[in-house]
């Protein structure tokens, strides 16, 4: 079949993207699903900083590529057990084979065949169903239809609005998961979140959910700080202040028990580390350019019993966590809908990524009628 989708053929084109037009809406031939795969009609796809990082070249990928990894849709054809036509699904951006050593240990985010497929721009089985175009993280959700591995899909409640359902595949799973799974934050412990995009605000919601206190939000955009307060942050800090780390330490009586870096910046990771108390845990969620590194006093890791942890996909098991987080949203415990800035159309993606790069949006969602 022929699908209409947003294809990136060259990374690193200059912004504004409204002028350079890195994403071109093209017609691409999509082969039918093979064994263990699904043909899905895409209903909605979130615009994530991970997509922007491919566009600007910070996260190099094989080209050309049909972008979009945070999405939801309706199964049209199923060649996999456990799924049927008409099922509503959300996608996880790491397909989990269920058989490798990390999968056997319950660490689906580190699936080795899944990582290899994502690097190669293929589906989990190593094939491409897009003619002449690579898949983005096994999803390629910026299109009206996609073929995906069933290992990338999780059945969800069909009553959920698609513009909300899409967010659970990346922003929510990554941010809330970093708090619940990676850090395992306990009630009454202090937490600080550096960066208030979709993932950062999801982490903040996760910290509020588990009863962390105080909860400090750090960003450079005043409107995001205001939203963070309305979502449960007890303190906000403008990251442009020279004493931002000192302000966090003061708000948390000497440093946070848990600090979360969601920006994808080595400099911000250093700030998060120095805002963490002795014996505390610093969790990095953002994806910096591969050339970046960060430096901390090595002795502090031992003498202060510090922990630095990475969190990918929120250390989640998508089939377990996505339904849980949706249930919490439906119960009013995770107000994810507050993260939705606006909806956009396929032809408006370049302008939407300009807004994302400028920090004037939290989560924009592509709606496909």
Describe it for me?
The protein has 369 residues and is α/β, with parallel strands linked by helices. 29% of the residues lie in helices and 25% in strands. It is built from 13 helices and 17 strands. The strands form 3 sheets. Strands 3, 5, 6, 8, 9, 16 and 17 form a 7-stranded mixed sheet that branches. Strands 12-11-10-13-14-15 form a 6-stranded parallel sheet, sandwiched between helices. The chain starts with a strand and ends with a strand. The mean pLDDT is 96.
The beta-strand count equals 17
* Shape type: globular
Beginning-to-end CA distance, first to last residue = 18 Å
Helix content: 25-40%
Which class do the helix and strand fractions yield?
alpha/beta
List the helices and strands and how they pair.
Elements: E1 2-8, H1 17-20, E2 23-29, E3 37-46, H2 49-55, E4 65-66, E5 70-78, E6 88-91, H3 101-104, H4 112-120, E7 134-135, E8 145-149, E9 153-155, H5 162-165, H6 171-183, E10 191-194, H7 198-209, E11 215-219, H8 222-230, E12 235-238, H9 244-251, E13 256-261, H10 266-274, E14 276-284, H11 298-303, E15 307-310, H12 318-330, E16 340-344, H13 349-358, E17 363-367
Parallel strand pairs: 4-7, 10-11, 10-13, 11-12, 13-14, 14-15, 16-17
Antiparallel strand pairs: 1-2, 1-4, 3-5, 3-8, 3-17, 5-6, 6-9
Helix pairs in contact: 6-7, 6-12
Quick recap of the structure?
By secondary structure, the chain is an alpha/beta fold. It has 13 helices and 17 strands.
């Amino acid at each position: 079949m022929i699908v209409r989708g947003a294809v990136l053929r060259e990374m690193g084109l200059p912004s504004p993207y409204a002028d350079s037009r890195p994403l071109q809406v093209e017609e691409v031939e999509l082969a039918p699903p093979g064994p263990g795969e699904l043909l899905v009609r895409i209903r909605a796809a979130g615009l994530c900083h991970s997509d922007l990082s491919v566009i600007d070249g910070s996260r190099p990928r094989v080209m050309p590529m049909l972008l979009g990894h945070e999405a939801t849709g309706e199964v049209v054809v199923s060649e996999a057990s456990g799924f049927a036509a008409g099922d509503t699904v959300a996608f996880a951006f790491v397909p989990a084979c269920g058989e490798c050593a990390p999968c056997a240990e319950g660490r689906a985010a580190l699936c080795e065949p899944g990582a290899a497929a994502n690097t190669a721009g293929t589906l989990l089985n190593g094939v491409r169903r897009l003619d002449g175009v690579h898949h983005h993280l096994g999803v390629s959700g910026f299109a009206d239809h996609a073929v995906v591995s069933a290992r990338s899909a999780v059945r969800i409640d069909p009553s959920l609005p698609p513009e909300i359902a899409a967010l659970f595949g990346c922003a929510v799973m990554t941010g809330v998961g970093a708090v619940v799974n990676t850090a395992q934050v306990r009630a009454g412990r202090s937490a600080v979140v550096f960066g208030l995009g979709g993932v950062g605000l999801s982490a903040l919601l996760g910290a509020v959910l588990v009863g962390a206190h105080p909860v400090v939000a750090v960003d450079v955009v005043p409107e995001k700080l205001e939203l963070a307060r309305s979502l449960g942050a007890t303190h906000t800090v403008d990251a442009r202040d020279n004493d931002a780390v000192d302000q966090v330490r003061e708000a948390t009586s000497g440093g946070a028990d848990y600090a979360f870096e969601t920006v994808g910046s080595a400099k911000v990771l250093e700030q998060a580390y120095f805002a963490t108390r002795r014996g505390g845990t610093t969790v990095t969620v953002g994806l910096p350019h591969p050339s970046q590194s960060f430096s901390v006093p090595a002795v502090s890791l031992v003498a202060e019993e510090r922990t630095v942890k990475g969190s990918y996909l929120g250390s989640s098991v998508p089939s377990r966590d996505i339904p849980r987080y949706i249930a919490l949203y439906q119960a009013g415990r995770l107000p994810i809908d507050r993260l939705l800035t606006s909806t956009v159309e396929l032809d408006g993606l370049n302008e939407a990524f300009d807004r994302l790069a400028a920090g004037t949006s939290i989560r924009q969602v592509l709606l496909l009628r």
